[in-house]
């Protein structure tokens, strides 16, 4: 027990700035929802639909960049800073390559949004916003790679401040472009896309300049950016990154599909879904930030050959995550209706969103548990079996249950979210069992 307690404090110390950075990143979407919601229910529903489709590619990008943190942390634990820099260089190459490819795919998908069966009033306005946030994907990938490098090198605070500044910049730009202040035209819903693109691009540039000039990174900073890439390094990163991206894609795809199902029920359920998913995604960032810290510590322990510390680090982080989930469960039960009212004045939308937050209060434990254990398994470079577990959880269990109960069974949005909760529970249990098995002494 003392070994477990001893590992909790350094995990929490590393996790705090990462959590703040993750929450700040989500706040960009939340502030968009709040400021868009003041222009009407239909723009809010359109942001839900467009953002849900984009999130599939965004989460895929997160998975592709996760190997940067894992391998940089492992090289740092083994005392090889030059190798850390090589993983950053290869990570940025992957970021640029996948960023351009995914952006082109999103642009092509933007011409086919009418096939998703959404309300006509939503489809009429979603196009320009969708193209603008799609254009921000490459800057996001670059930022993710640079942030993962900084955190793996034990410097998580500056990325946190950069993200906070990006959120503040996004709010100001929303105020300018959505509502038409300081001489700018009132672009409404489209203005939120303009603000997001600018804020994400500026954030990526700032963190690159900081890393380049900070003496703390001198030993690990790449010396030859244009040197030929190593096939071995790329294969190693893709061997971990592609299954990790698949895991996140299975989850984000399930939530995107749930948004599409909500759209089948009408604009009001879709708007309520956007409110609830904005809240849940924000509190989920606490667990995600904790999972990133735990993954970095597991990777460093592996690199240093300290295998006896793996289970105390991993299960200690899981206990912290469950404690956070308990706090958010109480918040959603007690204040769900009040929180929903911050987004939109429509009483029907607020009532349904509050009901969804009650369901969300129940699956906080499962959602936090599965993301923490999945990250720790990545720290062990175990990716294929966890990817299979998440595929079964979301696409064999969660989505069919959501469709049967929510759409066919007549329980509406609450039924759809209940089906997602069942899949999350499956993933949390079996990923935990996998970690315990692999860290057996």
Question: What would you note in describing this structure?
Answer:
The protein has 441 residues and is mainly α. The protein has one domain (2-438). The protein is 84% helix and 0% strand. It contains 13 helices and no strands. The protein has helices at 2-37, 41-77, 81-109, 120-135, 137-152, 157-179, 189-213, 231-265, 267-303, 310-341, 347-379, 384-408, 412-438. The chain is globular.
Shape: globular
Please report which band the strand proportion falls in: under 5%, 5-15%, 15-25%, 25-35%, 35-45% or over 45%. under 5%
Distance between the termini: 16 Å
Number of structural domains = 1
Mean pLDDT: 86
Number of strands: 0
Order of helices and strands: HHHHHHHHHHHHH
Q: Structural class from helices and strands?
A: mainly alpha
Describe the SSE topology:
Blueprint: H1 2-37, H2 41-77, H3 81-109, H4 120-135, H5 137-152, H6 157-179, H7 189-213, H8 231-265, H9 267-303, H10 310-341, H11 347-379, H12 384-408, H13 412-438
List keywords for this structure.
single chain, 441 residues, mainly alpha, 13 helices, 84% helix
Structure summarized in a few sentences:
The protein is mostly helical and 441 residues long. The protein contains 13 helices and no strands.
